[in-house]
C-alpha cells in the first residue's frame, strides 16, 4: 500500500509539472468570438432567409438555402441574438459569449417558439453522420434519460436489435446480445478505449447516464476507427466533454435501498483555454427484492423433502456499492492541439454474491471487491502539419485490483438460514476457501491518423494492449504460490480505411482492413506421479499460445432521395479470446480455458432508412430497418455444466448461423412521440458433425439461454399544452416484450416445458417536471408496475415492481 501511495505521488507530481509547463505557455486570445450554426425547424428542415443579428451591433447574417448562418467577431460578454423569419415573429435569445468559437443551432417550433442549443447540435450532427455511413448502427442520446431514474443499460435494452442480459439488480454482471451474438463477442468501449481497461468499478453498470453524451451501437460490421477486435458488434460510450463552464448534480433514491448520486462540471479559462473537467458518482443498493417460483425452495431438515417457499423470499446477500471520480485537465483549441488532456480516474466497487451461475446455488457469505486507478493522456489535432491531416492519440495505464472472499463452509437456503445437517465439503460456498487477489496492470494505446482531401479520406488505426495479472492467495499451499506466476497477454490490432463521398454526397463508401495478433503466456502447477517414489508431486507447466489473423469489410450508403437511404455492409470479422475467457475471473464465477481459439464470422447487413416525412407540418414519421446474417465459426460461448452449476466455463461452439431483422418506427405529433421496435434473432448451431465425426445432437437447434424475439414500445407526451401550470412536465410509458426461449439444449429434438424461460412483459411509467427556473428537474419512475416475473441468464430472476425519485440541479 505504501508503494502504491508513493507511486501515486510521483504520477501526480508529473501531472502537476505538465500543467505548470503548459500554463506558462498561455497565449492571449482576442476578446471576440465567431458564431455559426443552422436555423431549422424541430424536424431538422432548414429555414432559409432567416435574419440572425447581434442586437445593438452591425453584426448580422441571413441564412442560406441550407439554413446556415455566420456571425463574425462577436464581442465577449452578455449578448442578445435577434431572430426573425417569415415563419415566426421576431424573437430574442440571450447568450453569454465567453469563448472564441460557437456552433449553435437555432430551433424554430412551428408554433413560434425559438431556442438555442449548442449541445444538441453537436449530438445531432454526430448522430446523423454516424447513422448514414452505411453501417448498421443506432445512436442513443441520453439527454432526457440523464434527468430520469434510467440506467444506460436500460436505454440499450430498449434499442432495436439489442437485448441486455443481467444476472440480477443494480451492479450485477451484464452481457449484451446484438442480433443473436452475445457475451464478449460484443465489445464495450468508452470513448473508443476498451472498457476492460477501467474494470467493473467504472463500467456501464456504474457510470450514470448524466455523464454520457451518447451511446453508439454498431451491429455486426464495425469500422476500423473502433480499433479493437469485435465479432457481434461494439457498444461505444461517448462521455460528455463540456466545452463551456458548467456544473450539474443529481440524486435519486428508491426501492430495494437504492441510492445514486452524481456530479459533473467543467471550467475553461476564456483566454488560455486551460480546461478542467471533473465528475464523480456513488451507487448503492441492497438489491433485496423478492424472488419466487420453482427455483426458490428450502430442504426440510427432518424429511429432507424439497419445499417451495410460499410467497417467495427476499434476496438477503446482494448489497452493491460503487463510487468513483474522473478528472481531466489540459488545454483545448490551441494552435498545437485541439485537445490535450491528462487524466486520472479512481473507482471502487464492493459486491455481495447471492447466487452462483443458477438460482439453485445460494450464497450467504461470499464477496467480491475491486478498485481501479487509471491514468490517461488524450491528444487531438486537426490539420497537423498540413491541411486535412488529423491525429488522435489515447494512452492509458490501468492498475486494477480484484479480490474474492469466500471462507465459510456454511450452506444457506433462500430464507437465509444455515443448514444444521452439514457444510460444503469443499470448505467454502464457491469451492475451496479463498482470499484471492488478482493484481492487474494494463497499458493500452489507441491511435488514429487520417488524411482528408476533397471527397477522399484515408485512415490508419492502431490498438495495443499489454495485460498482466498476478494472482495471490494466502490460503494457497506453498507449492501453488511458488509455481503460479504472472499471466501475460499482449494484443495489437492494426487497421486501414478508405472513405469516399461521391455524387454530391449521396453515395458514401467505407472499405477497411484489419490485422489481429495476440500472445498468452503463463505457468500453473500440475500434479504428476513420480515413478520412483510413487508419490504425487507438483511441477510447473508453461502455457504459451499465439494467434494472428486478418479481416476486411465494406460499408455503403446511398441516398435515393433526400429522406430515403439504402445502407449495406459486409465484413470478415475476427475476435480474439479475452483475458477473462482465457484466464478466468473468480469474482464472476468464471473458470479459465487456455485452449480457446479466436472466433470468426462473416457478417452482412442490408438496411433502409425512411424519413422523417412531414405530414401537414404536424405529423412526422420515420422507419428504420435492417436485415442481417452472421455466419460464425468457433463461437466462444459461456455455459454451465448442469442445472445446479456454480461456475461458468467458456467453449468454442464451432459453427453458428444467426439470421434475422430488426425494425424501428418513430412517430411524432406536436407534443406526442411514439417509438416502437421489433427484433428477431434466429441463432442456431450450424455444424452437422461433432469433433468425432458423428452427427451433432444439437444440429440446427436454437442457441440455449438466448432470447430470439423482442419488442419495445415507448410513448412520451409533453403536457404543456394541456394546462399552463403543467408546462415543463412530460410523461412516458415503456413496454418491453421478450418471447419464451430455451434455457438448455433440447433433448431428442424437443424442448421440455421445464427448460423454457417463459414469455416476459414489463410495463414502466415515468414523469419529469422542470421548475420554471429550468435549474431544478424532478423525476419519478415506476418500473415493472405489474410486478411480472422477469428472468435472464440461466433463469436468474430480476427485480419486480419498484419506484424511484430523482432531483437534478443545474447550476450553469
Can you walk me through this structure?
Keywords: Cell outer membrane, Membrane, Receptor, Signal, TonB box, Transmembrane, Transmembrane beta strand, Transport. This protein has 812 residues and is mainly beta. It has 2 domains: 32-117, Sandwich (Immunoglobulin-like), CATH 2.60.40.4130; 240-810, Maltoporin, Chain A, CATH 2.40.170. The protein has 5 helices and 47 strands. The strands form 10 sheets. It has a 22-stranded antiparallel β-barrel. It has a 5-stranded mixed β-sheet with strand order 9-14-15-12-13, with helices on one face. Strands 4-1-7-8 form a 4-stranded mixed β-sheet. A hairpin with a 4-residue loop joins β31 and β32. The longest helix has 22 residues, at 2-23.
Q: Which helices and strands appear, and what pairs or packs with what?
A:
Blueprint: H1 2-23, E1 32-41, E2 51-54, E3 60-62, E4 68-75, E5 77-85, E6 88-97, E7 101-108, E8 114-117, H2 118-131, E9 137-141, H3 152-157, E10 162-166, E11 174-178, E12 186-190, E13 193-194, E14 212-219, E15 233-239, E16 246-254, E17 258-268, E18 274-285, E19 290-291, E20 297-299, E21 306-308, E22 313-314, E23 320-332, E24 339-355, E25 362-381, E26 389-406, E27 410-412, E28 418-423, E29 437-453, E30 456-472, H4 478-483, E31 487-502, E32 507-529, E33 536-561, E34 564-575, H5 579-583, E35 599-615, E36 619-633, E37 636-639, E38 649-652, E39 655-669, E40 672-685, E41 709-718, E42 729-738, E43 741-742, E44 756-757, E45 760-770, E46 776-783, E47 802-810
Parallel strand pairs: 1-7, 12-15
Antiparallel strand pairs: 1-4, 2-3, 2-5, 5-6, 7-8, 9-14, 10-11, 12-13, 14-15, 16-17, 16-47, 17-18, 18-23, 19-22, 20-21, 23-24, 24-25, 25-26, 26-29, 27-28, 29-30, 30-31, 31-32, 32-33, 33-34, 34-35, 35-36, 36-39, 37-38, 39-40, 40-41, 41-42, 42-45, 43-44, 45-46, 46-47
GO cellular component, one term: cell outer membrane
Domain TonB-dependent receptor-like beta-barrel: 319-735
Organism: Sphingobacterium humi
Amino acid at each position: 500500500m505504501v508503494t502504491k501511495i508513493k507511486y501515486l505521488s510521483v504520477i501526480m507530481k508529473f501531472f502537476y509539472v505538465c500543467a505548470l509547463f503548459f500554463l506558462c505557455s498561455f497565449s492571449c486570445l482576442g476578446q471576440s468570438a465567431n458564431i455559426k450554426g443552422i436555423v431549422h425547424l424541430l424536424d431538422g428542415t432548414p429555414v432559409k432567409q432567416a435574419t440572425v443579428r447581434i442586437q445593438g451591433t452591425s453584426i448580422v447574417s441571413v441564412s442560406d438555402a441550407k439554413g446556415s448562418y455566420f456571425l463574425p467577431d462577436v464581442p465577449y460578454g452578455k449578448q442578445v441574438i435577434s431572430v426573425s423569419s417569415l415563419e415566426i415573429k421576431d424573437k430574442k435569445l440571450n447568450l453569454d459569449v465567453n469563448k472564441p468559437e460557437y456552433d449553435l443551432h437555432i430551433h424554430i417550433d412551428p408554433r413560434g417558439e425559438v431556442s438555442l442549443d449548442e449541445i444538441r447540435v453537436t449530438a445531432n450532427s454526430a448522430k446523423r453522420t454516424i447513422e448514414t455511413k452505411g453501417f448498421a448502427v443506432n445512436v442513443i442520446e441520453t439527454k432526457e434519460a440523464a434527468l430520469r431514474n434510467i440506467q444506460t443499460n436500460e436505454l440499450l435494452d430498449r434499442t432495436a436489435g439489442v437485448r441486455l442480459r443481467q444476472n440480477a439488480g443494480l451492479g450485477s454482471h451484464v452481457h449484451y446480445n446484438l442480433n443473436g451474438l452475445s457475451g464478449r463477442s460484443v465489445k464495450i468501449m468508452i470513448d473508443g478505449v476498451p472498457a476492460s481497461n477501467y474494470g467493473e468499478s467504472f463500467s456501464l453498470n456504474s457510470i450514470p447516464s448524466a455523464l454520457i453524451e451518447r451511446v453508439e451501437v454498431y451491429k455486426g460490421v464495425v469500422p476500423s476507427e473502433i480499433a479493437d477486435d469485435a465479432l457481434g458488434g461494439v457498444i461505444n460510450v461517448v462521455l460528455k466533454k463540456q466545452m463551456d463552464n458548467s456544473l450539474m448534480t443529481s440524486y435519486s433514491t428508491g426501492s430495494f435501498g437504492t441510492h445514486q448520486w452524481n456530479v459533473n462540471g467543467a471550467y475553461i479559462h476564456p483566454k488560455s483555454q486551460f480546461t478542467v473537467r471533473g465528475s464523480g458518482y456513488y451507487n448503492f443498493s441492497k438489491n433485496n427484492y423478492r424472488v419466487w417460483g420453482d427455483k426458490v425452495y428450502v430442504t426440510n431438515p427432518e424429511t429432507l423433502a424439497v419445499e417451495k417457499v410460499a410467497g417467495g423470499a427476499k434476496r438477503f446477500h446482494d448489497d452493491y456499492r460503487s463510487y468513483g471520480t474522473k478528472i481531466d485537465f489540459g488545454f483545448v483549441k490551441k494552435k498545437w492541439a485541439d485537445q490535450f488532456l491528462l487524466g486520472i480516474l479512481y473507482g471502487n466497487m464492493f459486491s455481495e454474491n447471492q447466487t452462483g451461475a443458477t438460482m439453485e446455488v445460494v450464497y450467504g457469505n461470499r464477496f467480491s471487491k475491486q478498485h481501479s486507478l487509471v491514468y490517461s493522456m488524450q491528444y487531438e489535432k486537426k490539420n497537423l502539419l498540413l491541411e486535412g491531416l488529423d491525429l488522435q492519440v489515447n494512452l492509458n495505464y490501468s492498475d486494477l485490483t480484484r479480490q474474492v472472499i469466500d471462507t465459510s463452509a456454511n450452506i444457506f437456503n433462500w430464507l437465509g438460514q444455515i443448514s444444521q445437517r452439514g457444510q460444503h465439503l469443499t470448505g467454502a460456498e464457491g469451492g475451496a476457501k479463498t482470499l484471492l487477489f488478482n493484481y492487474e496492470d494494463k497499458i493500452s494505446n489507441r491511435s488514429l491518423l487520417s488524411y482528408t482531401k476533397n471527397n477522399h479520406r484515408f485512415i490508419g488505426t492502431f490498438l495495443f494492449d499489454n495485460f498482466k495479472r498476478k494472482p495471490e492467495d494466502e490460503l494457497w499451499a506453498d507449492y501453488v504460490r511458488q509455481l503460479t506466476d504472472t499471466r501475460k497477454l499482449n494484443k495489437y490490432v492494426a487497421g486501414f480505411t478508405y472513405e469516399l463521398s461521391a455524387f454530391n454526397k449521396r453515395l458514401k463508401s467505407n472499405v477497411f482492413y484489419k490485422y489481429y495478433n495476440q500472445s498468452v503466456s503463463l505457468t500453473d502447477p500440475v500434479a504428476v506421479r513420480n515413478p520412483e517414489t510413487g508419490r504425487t508431486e507438483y511441477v510447473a507447466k508453461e502455457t504459451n499460445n499465439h494467434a494472428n489473423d486478418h479481416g476486411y469489410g465494406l460499408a455503403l450508403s446511398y441516398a435515393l432521395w433526400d429522406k430515403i437511404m439504402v445502407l449495406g455492409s459486409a465484413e470478415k470479422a475476427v475476435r480474439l479470446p479475452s483475458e477473462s475467457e482465457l484466464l478466468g475471473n473468480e469474482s464472476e464465477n468464471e473458470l479459465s480455458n487456455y485452449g480457446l481459439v479466436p472466433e470468426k464470422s462473416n457478417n452482412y447487413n442490408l438496411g433502409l432508412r425512411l424519413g422523417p416525412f412531414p405530414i401537414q407540418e404536424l405529423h412526422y414519421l420515420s422507419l428504420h430497418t435492417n436485415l442481417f446474417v452472421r455466419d460464425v465459426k468457433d463461437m466462444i460461448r459461456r455455459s454451465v455444466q448442469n442445472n445446479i452449476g456454480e461456475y461458468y466455463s467458456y467453449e468454442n461452439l464451432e459453427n453458428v448461423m444467426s439470421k434475422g431483422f430488426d425494425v424501428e418506427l418513430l412517430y411524432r405529433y406536436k407534443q406526442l412521440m411514439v417509438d416502437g421496435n421489433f427484433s428477431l434473432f434466429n441463432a442456431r448451431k450450424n455444424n452437422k458433425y461433432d469433433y468425432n465425426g458423428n452427427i451433432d445432437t444439437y444440429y440446427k437447434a436454437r442457441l440455449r439461454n438466448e432470447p430470439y424475439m423482442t419488442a419495445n414500445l415507448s410513448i412520451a407526451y409533453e403536457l404543456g399544452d394541456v394546462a399552463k401550470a403543467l408546462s415543463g412536465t412530460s410523461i412516458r410509458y415503456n413496454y418491453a416484450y421478450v418471447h419464451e426461449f430455451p434455457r438448455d439444449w433440447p433433448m431428442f429434438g424437443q424442448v421440455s416445458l421445464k427448460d423454457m424461460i417463459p414469455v416476459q412483459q414489463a410495463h414502466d411509467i415515468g414523469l419529469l417536471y422542470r421548475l420554471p427556473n429550468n435549474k431544478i428537474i424532478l423525476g419519478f419512475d415506476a418500473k415493472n408496475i405489474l410486478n411480472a416475473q422477469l428472468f435472464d441468464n440461466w433463469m436468474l430472476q430480476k427485480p419486480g415492481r419498484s419506484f424511484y425519485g430523482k432531483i437534478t440541479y443545474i447550476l450553469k
